[in-house]
Backbone:
């Protein structure tokens, strides 16, 4: 959005955000923090995106607090001025001269201010220049390269090496003083203590797939129960970065062998040790709402007509089949248990359970769907032992499902509602629990602080939910926590330095927020400690480095927009007024409550962040979804004769340009307005909305009526969340 703002505040174009760009929302606690902090990582570790500086890989801090320097600060500043500063002012001053709010001013016209910005923010590593953040930004992230990224990175790196040479020796890294009040050290390799935190149910597992291989044509059954049902991945399956697989074609299938799959039959259905009950769990994102068949997500079957169980998608509904001896149940598990209007193209947690008391149940996002099993329970003695566990299709390759899978599990137990909710809360992402022993410094034997932790990207770690765990601490004071990596304190990302708690329970959460810290050597090598300002009666006043110099001047080149952005309540009320959807709408209100704190809190356009645009877009999607789903609201908005054919297939509803214009022009006229000096011209807006609609139509199955409404929602959301509306 900020790129659409010109000198005098005029919007040069509409920021058309596709519906596919909206972040998925309903995930576990740590996943929510990971998603929210991904944007923060960009702001923390990059420059021009509006963030306030970032940490270097190693945290060298020449001239900063807590560390030494073999040369005087004056000499070091001069060396910087004559080397790296020249490169930075030549190529980076557009963003980093200090004219943009929050941007690290390491290209400031005053080299002393620039020096302070680049060292205090730990943008350079004067021990290993190749790991300097300003080098990594070019080598790994291709950030605003001015020619060839590799050559540009080499130029920056050479300038840092020249800086070191002028100083005469590499400054000592920002190493913690030996007297610093700190916890015992730990690593990811030593992680695993989840005693105080939510964790997945890991008993009664029969098969488990976490899809972390990232490459190859096989995904492993990591349940630890033999024989492993490893799944062969066909063409048309792509690996999802970090964790997951994506089914992209009509012939894509992941299937196990009949011999290995027989353990499901043996452990669940028939035999002396069979449980006679089971659960199937999957974390998925459906690709669309048009899949029929029904499309098989997870199935234990031999073909399209014979299955022991199956979890399926049928356009906008999820369904669950279970073969049993209950009256009226077919060899395919019909009639199936169906939850109508339950599918959304976002990350979804789905659990199907069966036992011989309650029959079938289907849970979505941690909650029982409430749909009763009319067929009732029945023995599983008619299950077939030669069927195969299959994901994304049938073994006969005729019921394809398209979308992404992040985790699939099979239990020989019907999970309870509490256990389903626990798995939903724990989520699917790879995360660790780092445990920091504080017995010696707290005087409480067995005391520790645990944090959820994981890689957020190749440059940074995410930490969340620091929690005291141990014997009753009897009012232990804990204040000012910072995370150290390899005996060094990163200057930024220390969100827990404001912790100030009196711990009075054996399990006590110290903070509910997440934070991002730059990596040093990487997950396999990095060692972590917690540094405290106060533990009990002990205190350390030298934890934080001295603050840097502030540049209080107003640069004559600074351009001040005359317009501002709408704040959170203004955004919500504006969207409600334009769409006709009341702010009290349940879905809208739920989303608004979740993201309210991520929306702009002040009107200063220079403080607008990219993460806020994502939250605005998410709210816009919810408003447009509610409007288009309501016959009364959409007819009132897109009024005219004849009425737009919302119930028709895409190729009919948008068969003429006039029909397309009916949607785009109405959105422009009612949401943006025309002939306004501070808004896009009608031609600009029509070109942007028309192009987006054509893209959505091209990606839609021509015979799918549900896609017509989805395409309208997409264009609606892009306009409603655009700069044209968000800028006052």
Residues:
């Amino acid at each position: 959005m900020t790129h659409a703002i010109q000198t005098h505040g005029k919007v040069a174009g509409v920021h058309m955000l596709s519906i596919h760009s909206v972040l998925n929302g309903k995930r576990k606690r740590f996943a929510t923090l990971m998603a929210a902090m991904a944007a923060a990582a960009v702001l923390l570790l990059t420059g021009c995106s509006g963030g306030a500086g970032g940490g270097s890989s190693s945290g060298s801090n020449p001239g900063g607090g807590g560390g030494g320097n073999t040369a005087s600060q004056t000499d070091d500043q001069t060396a910087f001025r004559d080397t790296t500063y020249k490169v930075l002012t030549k190529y980076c001053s557009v963003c980093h001269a200090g004219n943009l709010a929050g941007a690290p001013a390491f290209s400031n016209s005053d080299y002393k201010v620039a020096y302070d910005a680049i060292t205090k923010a730990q943008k350079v590593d004067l021990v290993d220049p190749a790991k300097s953040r300003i080098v990594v930004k070019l080598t790994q992230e291709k950030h605003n390269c001015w020619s060839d990224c590799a050559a540009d990175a080499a130029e920056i790196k050479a300038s840092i090496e020249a800086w070191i040479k002028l100083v005469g020796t590499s400054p000592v890294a920002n190493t913690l003083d030996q007297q610093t009040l700190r916890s015992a050290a730990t690593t990811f390799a030593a992680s695993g203590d989840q005693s105080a935190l939510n964790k997945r149910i890991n008993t009664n597992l029969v098969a488990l797939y976490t899809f972390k291989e990232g490459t190859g044509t096989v995904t492993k059954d990591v349940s630890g129960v033999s024989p492993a049902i490893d799944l062969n991945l066909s063409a048309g399956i792509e690996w999802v970065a970090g964790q997951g697989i994506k089914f992209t074609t009509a012939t894509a299938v992941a299937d196990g062998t009949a011999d290995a799959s027989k353990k499901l039959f043996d452990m669940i259905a028939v035999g002396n040790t069979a449980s006679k009950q089971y659960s199937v769990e999957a974390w998925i994102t459906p690709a669309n709402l048009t899949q029929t068949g029904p499309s098989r997500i997870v199935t234990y079957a031999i073909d399209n007509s014979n299955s022991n169980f199956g979890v399926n998608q049928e356009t906008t509904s999820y369904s669950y089949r279970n073969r049993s001896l209950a009256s009226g149940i077919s060899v395919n598990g019909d009639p199936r248990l169906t939850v109508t209007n339950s599918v959304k193209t976002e990350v979804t947690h789905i659990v199907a359970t069966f036992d011989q008391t309650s029959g079938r149940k289907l849970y979505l996002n941690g909650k029982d769907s409430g749909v009763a099993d009319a067929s009732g329970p029945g023995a599983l003695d008619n299950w077939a032992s030669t069927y195969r566990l299959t994901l994304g299709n049938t073994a006969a390759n005729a019921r394809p499902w398209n979308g992404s899978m992040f985790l699939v599990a099979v239990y020989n137990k019907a999970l309870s509602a509490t256990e389903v909710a626990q798995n939903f809360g724990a989520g699917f992402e790879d995360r660790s629990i780092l445990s920091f022993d504080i017995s010696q410094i707290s005087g409480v034997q067995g005391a520790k602080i645990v944090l959820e932790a994981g890689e957020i990207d190749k440059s940074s770690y995410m930490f969340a939910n620091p929690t005291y765990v141990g014997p009753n601490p009897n009012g232990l004071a804990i204040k000012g926590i910072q995370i150290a990596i390899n005996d060094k304190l990163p200057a930024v990302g220390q969100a827990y330095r404001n912790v100030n708690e009196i711990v009075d329970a054996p399990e006590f959460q110290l903070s509910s927020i997440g934070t991002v810290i730059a990596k040093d050597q990487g997950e396999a090598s990095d060692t972590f400690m917690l540094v405290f300002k106060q533990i009990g009666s002990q205190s350390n006043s030298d934890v934080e480095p001295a603050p840097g110099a502030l540049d209080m001047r107003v640069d004559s080149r600074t351009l001040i927009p005359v317009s501002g952005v709408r704040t959170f309540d203004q955004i919500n009320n504006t969207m409600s007024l334009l769409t006709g959807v009341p702010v009290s709408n349940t879905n809208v209100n739920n989303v608004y409550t979740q993201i309210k704190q991520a929306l702009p809190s002040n009107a200063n356009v220079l403080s607008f962040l990219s993460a806020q645009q994502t939250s605005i877009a998410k709210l816009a999607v919810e408003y447009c979804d509610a409007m288009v789903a309501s016959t009364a609201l959409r007819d009132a908005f897109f009024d005219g004769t004849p009425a737009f054919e919302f119930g028709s297939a895409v190729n009919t509803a948008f068969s003429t340009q006039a029909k397309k214009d009916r949607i785009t022009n109405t959105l422009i006229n009612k949401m943006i307005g025309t002939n306004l000096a501070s808004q896009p011209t009608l031609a600009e807006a029509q070109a942007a909305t028309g192009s987006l609609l054509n893209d959505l139509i091209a990606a839609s199955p021509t015979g799918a009526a549900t896609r017509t409404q989805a395409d309208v929602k997409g264009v609606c959301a892009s306009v409603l969340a655009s700069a044209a509306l968000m800028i006052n």
The chain has four domains: 2-24+562-726, 46-167, 205-426, 432-535.
